[in-house]
Amino acid sequence: MPKEKKEKTTKEEVEKETQEKPPQVTDNEEAKVEPPTAEKADDKKDKKPKEEKVGIAYVFSSSNNTMVHITDMAGNTISRVSGGQVTKHSRLKSNPTIAMFVAKRASERPRDLGITALYIRSRGKTTAGTTGPGAHSAIKALGKEGFRIINILETTKYPRGGPKKKGGRRGRRV
Given the DSSP bridges, would you call strands 66-72 and 53-61 parallel, antiparallel or unpaired? Predict the structure, then answer.
């Protein structure tokens, strides 16, 4: 009986053989090397979207001051900051730059509590009929702080007729 040649079936022998021979690359073909990826496409599909916590930001802006008041959906106050807490100059309290700092300071605590989205209610002084100069920059700063803005609603009150003015039919006599 002739002896049969043993085939190389052990893993060690196969690995040695593959290590000895480098992969041959021809001129027409380029070696395609895929870098190892940390996450595959299948892993991304399996992840569930994070539940977002929603809050309400009340932005009051008059010609004299800007205030940002952030609450949760139940109405419990999370943070409240005004222009006077940011600057010591009373003439700058309604400034758009100060309003930006007010919004940044007001957004610190809600971000720590996990709030990711905001409804914004903007309001101005009742007799003025419009918001003050700091409202727009405060809303913009809240968006830049990483909150997703769901809705912006202007809730400025304005009189519709109202009580009779003082002074009589002919006005005040001087």
Answer: antiparallel
